[in-house]
Amino acid sequence: MGKYGVLIVDDSAFMRRAITLLFEADPDFFIAGIARNGREAIDKIQRLKPDLVTMDVEMPEMDGITALANIMEHHPVPVVMLSVQTDDGTEATIRALQLGAVDFFLKDRLVHEPDRSAVVLDFLERVKSAAGAKISRPGSAMPVVSEPKKKPEAVRARTADLLVIGCSTGGPSALQSILPRFPKDFPIPVIVVQHMPPGFTKPLADRFNNLCELDISEAQDGDILKAGTAYVAPAGFQTILERKADGSIQLRIRSDLAPNALYKPSIDVLLTSAAPLFGDRLITAILTGMGVDGTAGCRDVKNLKGRVIAEAEESCVVYGMPKSVFEAGLTDRQVTLSQIYANLVDLAFE
Question: In what residue span(s) does the CheB-type methylesterase domain sit (predicted)?
Answer without folding.
Answer: 156-345
